[in-house]
Design brief:
Number of domains: 1
Radius of gyration: 17 Å
Order of helices and strands: EEHEEEEEHHEHHEE
Largest sheet: 6 strands, mixed
Shape: globular
CATH topology: CNF1/YfiH-like putative cysteine hydrolases
Number of helices: 5
Number of strands: 10
Structural class: alpha+beta
């Protein structure tokens, strides 16, 4: 089992567990499902429940979180974030078989409740306030950037749990890099305020977009300190051999996941 961790969370290893899966170390695949090989964590992709159960078991065991308490969503590229307060849980919230509908992010102050988001080119952002002991997991593709879901997650941590944005640490997963984030016509597909991340405006190829920089600046604009943001800067297309990628897999791919949990 291979999984990645953020260096920025290392000082808090006694109170925080987290990890990012790769595509390595699972049981999915086969001649007709090679695009799911091998640690696919994506539902509704044709993978069997038996494979998914074993993949989730392996990943959660490696990170050290309880798979039966996972809180996650189907993910719809929304900007909706679900707040889960300590002591306010119901059984229907838990487990990978019961993803919630309508959300792309979670925040909690409860110990032992892992928050999980899935991705395959999109960004999986994990957040931690070491002062208030609050964590968040957020899924953000380019549509999430348009809706500023990362900034909204920080704002909700401040409003709902009294966090200070300057205390929040953020890690952004392996995802679509500016080297492969090509749009058909980004000047039409993206809002005007995002044009500074496009092509020559961002010092990259025409029709390509720097979504890493966009996410970084959205977090900073909400009060997160630049030094408190770690972007993995590993492109899922460039490293399609170890990362699932929607574009690298020609629109057929499995999903990775990021999980974070107060210990």
């Amino acid at each position: 089992m291979q999984f990645l961790k953020f260096k920025i969370f290392a000082p808090w290893k006694n109170v925080l567990r987290h990890g990012l899966s790769t595509r390595v170390g699972g049981v999915s695949g086969g001649s007709d499902m090679e695009h799911l090989a091998s640690l696919n964590l994506g539902q509704f992709l044709g993978d069997s429940e038996t494979n998914l159960a074993e993949n989730y078991r392996r990943f959660c065991e490696a990170v050290g979180v309880d798979e039966n308490k996972l809180v996650m969503a189907e993910q719809e590229h929304s900007d909706e974030i679900f707040v889960l307060r300590d002591g306010e849980f119901r059984p229907e919230y838990f487990g990978w078989r019961k993803p919630l509908k309508g959300y792309d992010g979670f925040i909690t102050d409860a110990v032992g409740v892992p928050l999980l988001v899935r991705f395959a080119d999109c960004q999986g952002a994990l957040m931690f306030d070491p002062v208030k002991r609050v964590v968040a997991a957020v899924h953000s593709g380019w549509r999430g950037n348009v809706k500023n879901i990362l900034g909204k997650a920080v704002k909700k941590m401040v409003e709902e749990f009294g966090c200070s944005a300057s205390d929040i640490l953020v890690g952004i997963s392996q995802s679509l890099g500016p080297c492969h984030a090509e749009f058909t016509d980004p000047l039409k597909e993206l809002p005007e305020w995002m044009q500074k991340y496009v092509g020559k405006n961002a010092g990259i190829k025409e029709r390509y977009v720097d979504l890493w920089k966009c996410s970084f600046e959205q977090l900073v604009a909400e009060g997160v300190r630049p030094e408190n943001i770690e972007i993995m800067r590993r492109c899922t297309v460039c490293e399609n051999d170890i990362f699932f990628s929607f574009r690298g897999g020609k629109k057929k791919t499995g999903h990775m996941a990021g999980v974070i949990c107060l210990d």
